[in-house]
Specification:
- The protein is mainly α and 123 residues long.
- The chain folds into two domains: 10-81; 84-123.
- The protein has helices spanning 14-19, 21-37, 45-51, 54-63, 78-81, 85-122; strands at 42-44, 67-68, 72-74.
- A three-stranded antiparallel β-sheet has the order 1-3-2.
- The chain starts with 13 loop residues before the first helix and ends with a helix.
Length: 123
């Protein structure tokens, strides 16, 4: 699961201050939605409306924290700070392969240990 990264001075950014706490909360929630579902910063309109109000959405658009993109919204510069879908999927595949190999090796070691134990008990 990827993390949604924020700089430690995010709270000081003029756009954040201008948008207000409620709209900033919507921005964070939708940012984590995008990280979770690997949408590369795209927020579908139904999700935005489910998580926030029209006024909060308008505040994000007015401040430039979001941009409209036809079928929803996009977080500008999302991919400058967050990993893209392709990179996350590649990392997941790499970790899965490592775990599979570790499991395979563990299974072999377990089989050898059982076989050794059986051989020793017969002697």
């Amino acid at each position: 699961m990827p993390w949604f990264r924020l700089e430690d001075d995010f709270y000081l950014h003029p756009k954040v201050s201008s948008a207000g706490n409620a709209a900033t909360g919507l921005w964070v929630r939708c940012g984590t939605y995008s990280a979770h579902y690997l949408t590369d910063g795209h927020i579908p309109t139904p999700i935005a409306r489910q998580l926030g109000t029209r006024n909060e959405i308008a505040a994000l658009l007015d401040t430039g924290l979001w941009a409209a993109n036809g079928d929803g919204f996009v977080i500008p510069d999302f991919l400058e700070y967050q990993p893209c879908r392709t990179d996350v999927e590649a990392e997941r595949a790499r970790i899965s392969a490592i775990r599979a190999e570790a499991g395979r090796r563990g299974g072999i070691a377990s089989g050898i240990a059982k076989q050794t134990k059986q051989t020793e008990s017969k002697q």
